[in-house]
Design a protein that fits this description.
This is threonine-phosphate decarboxylase. The chain is α/β, with parallel strands linked by helices. The chain contains 12 helices and 13 strands.
């Protein structure tokens, strides 16, 4: 099993701090996610998933793209897509969300991990290129023109460009959704990050109808629970909340960057949902913050920390006090 953020149970045991006493900044998920209504219809718990409900229409309106498939979180697509090609050579960013490389390796493909600066030179030898945009954890943001140039070269020989846009919702102007569907381009989106609803396990794949039909056949029936379908439909339809988040998230991210900088944890990069700090002291900082009940995401290669956004004003104050103690 690969290591991910949010594993508070292990941290609670390691540092002997109750789960309820932690400030979890390890996941890069919107801490003030879409507010799920307290009262939901009883039928969403007793019905099998209704394929022809309002979910697809709501997703098509939100993403402004008609050719999509709803899946059980983008993770389901990450694991399934490698099974849809014969063994080939796959280029992936590093560092990046490790499940992509793991899934292609598990399916028997040859994986080449690349820094972004090496992609142009490596592309002629690749059949598939997987990009996370903006990247996790480095927050590197690729322009649509650069991605489309890579896609064109791959598509000419039957290759794929897969772009995981899990962190894209706050900056939709950088998305490639307006280019779908086109042969050789596959986009992944998630409800978990921007909407702050990872527990629903809902994501979407955008590609040509032929590929989506094949993926649906591979994944099988009822991939998403009816309750998740219902709540996701409401969240995707709430344009006022979405607009508000696109205004407030950048401000919160800048506030986080400013606080980290003030205490000499200068962010290397960041996006609207997290800040990334690259430093040889990352493990020491991670441990010292964990001793105060603040959980960050530690990366070994390169040595770095990812800080998600605090939820409440008290959480912001707690982080500031912990950093002050750490740097004193």
């Amino acid at each position: 099993m690969l290591e991910h953020g949010g594993n508070l149970a292990a941290a609670s045991q390691q540092y002997n701090i109750p789960l309820s006493d932690w400030l979890d900044l390890s996941t890069g998920i919107n801490p003030n996610g879409w507010p799920v209504p307290e009262h939901l219809p009883n039928t969403i718990w007793s019905h099998l998933p209704i394929e022809y409900d309002d979910l697809i229409a709501a997703a098509q309106a939100y993403y402004q793209c008609d050719d999509l498939l709803a899946v059980a979180g983008s993770q389901a697509a990450i694991q399934a897509l490698p099974r849809m090609r014969q063994q080939c050579r796959v280029g992936l960013l590093t560092p990046a969300y490790a499940e992509h490389a793991h899934a292609w390796q598990q399916a028997g493909h040859s994986v080449v991990e690349l820094a972004s600066s090496a992609i142009n030179d490596a592309l002629p030898d690749l059949d598939v290129l997987v990009i996370i945009n903006p990247n996790n954890p480095t927050a590197e943001l690729f322009s649509p023109s650069q991605l489309l140039a890579w896609h064109q070269e791959l598509a000419q020989r039957g290759g794929w460009l897969i772009v995981d846009e899990a962190f894209m919702d706050a900056t939709p102007e950088f998305s490639l959704l307006n280019k779908c569907p086109v042969e050789g381009l596959i986009l992944l989106r998630s409800i978990g990050k921007f909407f702050g609803l990872p527990g629903l396990r809902v994501g979407f794949v955008f590609a040509t109808p032929t590929l989506l039909n094949a993926l649906a056949e591979l994944l099988g029936p009822w991939p998403i629970a009816q309750a998740s379908r219902y709540i996701t439909t409401l969240a995707l339809s709430d344009t006022d909340w979405q607009q508000q988040q696109r205004q407030t998230l950048p401000l919160s991210s800048k506030r986080l960057s400013d606080i980290l900088t003030r205490y000499n944890l200068l962010p290397t990069a960041g996006c609207n949902l997290f800040q990334w700090v690259c430093s040889s002291q990352a493990e020491t900082w991670h441990q010292q913050l964990a001793q105060q009940g603040i959980f960050t995401r530690l990366f070994k290669q390169p040595a770095s920390l990812r800080f998600g956004l605090p939820k409440t004003e008290l959480d912001w104050q707690r982080l500031t006090q912990a950093l002050e103690k750490l740097c004193s």
